[in-house]
């Protein structure tokens, strides 16, 4: 056996003697074991402490020789030095015998920067997964992200769908499974592991940019914590909301089978039956149609969906667009096609 391989095995054994690292390593393996054929996957790397912690744990996982793991970073090309930042992360991982692939965004992002950057990131990562023949993408979203997402959606008037925040598993393009194994782990734990394994992490300058809502939510969260409002209890409430969402989804699926027909180029919604449904079910039906027809990860903003439903029921709708889809009313049916 090569000296380099022996040294790596010794390092992994040493790391796993650390109780905090072993705890998250076991957590990661438990989540992966829940999903069939999850023996090959891509890790989304950013250079931040959370993604580096996941990267380090997946590197240890490779020593078991049961898994095939790819590591990919998206350079959004939003800042002048973004390519330099990507290279710094790549060099750090190279020193730790991890091969990082940098995916460069070539599209210009001028508005809705965080939303559009997210969409592009998942598109590039999904394309990479398809190219490498893997069906799973892992991200290091954690408890703090979950709570921030809850407050962001609360500030936008989201309903049960939005307030349930992120799930452990969701679907991306090409039937790629997006897995988030650390949604109940706080950022401090991940930061500890990243420093322990890599000795350093990188900061994203956008995290302190006050023009982004998430940055302001982080400041709000600190004030709430100082006043005794525990993020862990908020996360528990999010789980309860998610259970409610699951119950509603059961009825949404039943309703959609009855009143929605998917054709090759358009989706047809029976408006007569649609109008009989409760408001929350109507809301979910429109969201599901848009996500499937536009092939997008994120649904439209909730207020836009509500406005569309009101126009349908107020008989004012003839033709409009929403979430990359074209809606056209003909008699008692609503025809939805992809907007080009």
Features:
alpha/beta, five-stranded antiparallel β-sheet, 340 residues, six-stranded mixed β-sheet, Uridine Diphospho-n-acetylenolpyruvylglucosamine Reductase, domain 3
- The CATH topology of the largest domain: Rossmann fold
Per CATH, the superfamily of the largest domain is HUPs
Largest sheet report: 6 strands, mixed
Total of domains: 2
Q: Determine the mean pLDDT.
A: 89
SSE order: HHEHEHEHEHHEEHHHEEHHHEEE
DSSP strand count: 11
What proportion strand? 15-25%
Q: How many individual helices?
A: 13
Overall CATH class of the largest domain: Alpha Beta
- Please identify the oligomeric state: single chain
Write the layout of secondary structure elements.
Elements: H1 3-16, H2 19-33, E1 40-45, H3 49-62, E2 68-75, H4 82-95, E3 100-104, H5 113-132, E4 136-138, H6 143-155, H7 160-163, E5 169-171, E6 177-179, H8 187-198, H9 213-226, H10 231-259, E7 260-262, E8 266-270, H11 271-274, H12 279-294, H13 302-313, E9 319-322, E10 325-330, E11 333-338
Parallel strand pairs: 1-2, 1-4, 2-3, 4-6
Antiparallel strand pairs: 5-6, 7-8, 8-11, 9-10, 10-11
Helix pairs in contact: 2-3, 3-8, 6-9, 6-10, 10-12, 12-13
Describe, in plain words, how this protein is organized in 3D.
- The chain is of the alpha/beta class and 340 residues long.
- It folds into two domains: 3-232, HUPs (Rossmann fold); 252-338, 2-Layer Sandwich (Uridine Diphospho-n-acetylenolpyruvylglucosamine Reductase, domain 3).
- Helices cover 53% and strands 15% of the residues.
- It is built from 13 helices and eleven strands.
- The chain has helices spanning 3-16, 19-33, 49-62, 82-95, 113-132, 143-155, 160-163, 187-198, 213-226, 231-259, 271-274, 279-294, 302-313, and strands at residues 40-45, 68-75, 100-104, 136-138, 169-171, 177-179, 260-262, 266-270, 319-322, 325-330, 333-338.
- It has a six-stranded mixed β-sheet with strand order 3-2-1-4-6-5. Strands 7-8-11-10-9 form a five-stranded antiparallel β-sheet.
- Strand 7 and strand 8 form a beta hairpin.
- Helix 6 packs across helix 10.
- The longest helix has 29 residues, at 231-259.
